[in-house]
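The pair is quoted verbatim underneath.

:::
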Amino acid sequence: MRLLGAILGLQTARYGARVRTIIGQLSPSRRDLILMTGVAAAGAVATAQRGQPSPPPPASLSTSVLNVRDFGATGDDSSDDSGAVQAAMKEAQASRAPATIYFPAGEYRVRGGVIVVDEGTPLLIRGDGAGATRISFLAGDTSSDPLVSVNAAYSAVEALRLDGGGARNGAALLALNQAYTRVDGCVLTHAPGTALAIGESGPALVHAIENVIIRDAGQYGIHVFGTVAGHAGGSTDGLWSNVDVGRSGLSGVFLESSSQNLSNVHVWQSGTDRNAGDDRHGFRVTSRSHILNGCQAETNLGDGIRFENGGGDHSVVSAGRVWQNGGSGLVGINTHFLTITGCSFTQNGRANVGDAASKSATSAAAIRNEGGGGWAITGCSAWDDEQPLKEVKSPAPTDGATIPSRGKQRTQTFAYVSTGKADDSVLTGGVCCAEDTLSGASILSESTRLRVCGTDLGADTVPQISTMATLTLPPWGSTVRLAGAGQISRIEPSYAGRVVNILLPAGATVTISAKNPALLLAADLTASGGGCITLVCSGDVWHEISRTA
């Protein structure tokens, strides 16, 4: 019929009205088919004859579609369809032109290393939807090759389910090893190794992951590799949207390459492998310059979000929720210039359980900054309550680790913890008002450069220090209480702009000298009936603002 259409189309270009009369006498269905093929060709021929460029063919006809069933695949979940699928792949790639490898509804079993999109020939691997088309490893497969490997730019995998099929080969389900690749509308389950490996053996730059669900990976749910020994791998500028990663053996998401852009990514119950060690976090990041927007990390055995080895520098975490993880909510190790905005950190530190829960465990903090600085934490909430939490178990047949239960006990010890004395981070506009019930303080820091502004710290006790000649103020906070009589001639400087209210003891005489050049008072102060003096620091000098004594 298509050949007839082409012939009639050519004749139409030459004979015009006579051919149109013949076409008009055909049935409507045949007439429409001929008009879609032959007449379109006729128009192209006529245009070419006039010396003008031919229009492009319709989009639906621009690439070929190869149905694996036409090559002998059965999709019966028991037969070895490797040969049939390989034949379809070979024919598609022989033309060196874009094509679609189509898997109709069914359950296909193939060996690892069969579905490989070779470099230079972009292909679309497509099914009838994740609930209808499933591709699995052949039972007993010992190959270490991924189930599907995409090594050509502009290729895509969409609308199907990839499954480990019971294989124990440690292989990935899907590997992206080239730029501008895409995964859309897929479900990846029971991977022997990592479910989605990105950039392991080639630079998968600007990849896109959309509407993807990952369950029960043996290792990582998603692993973005860094540079591979001997050649460049990894991936920068990844684009992720609407991704759910649950019950991974190791950390749910592991980012070794920089500049990933994540939106609406949900990672939960990571670290179910009993041998995972410390690699059982929701998001594990060892690279810089990421954006995590609208992401959630819940009930992971380790930390919810963990930046380590300097990872997370210049990253942004916004509008996220981090809750009920075994360790801290968010951790940065030697991380600098991290922005955290509008996030909620609740009920973390589940490993800090029972009546013997430590009141000073920094590993159970909402936010933990180890050796970093320059963090901007704005509009975040950190709270805990005495709501009991049940143990979270991995489903059968996985004999994995469990997330511990928790009785009526607060386990998130601090809202913010920083180590080292050089932390120049800023906390503004937040609510951190529950941790003091367990630890006695919302913030734990040794830095005199940490700034806390406009943040509700709950019922934190106003720090009390002894009166002495040289006064060293607590590293953060705006109010301090003096204890006992004494004469003060110097106050150690703090960061520029810091305002401190010094509460004077009632019933004890305190004298503050105005003669020290680093302490500029309107006059000497002597008080025995309490009162308050307010100072502001310019960096090296404290200036008096007001006094009530």
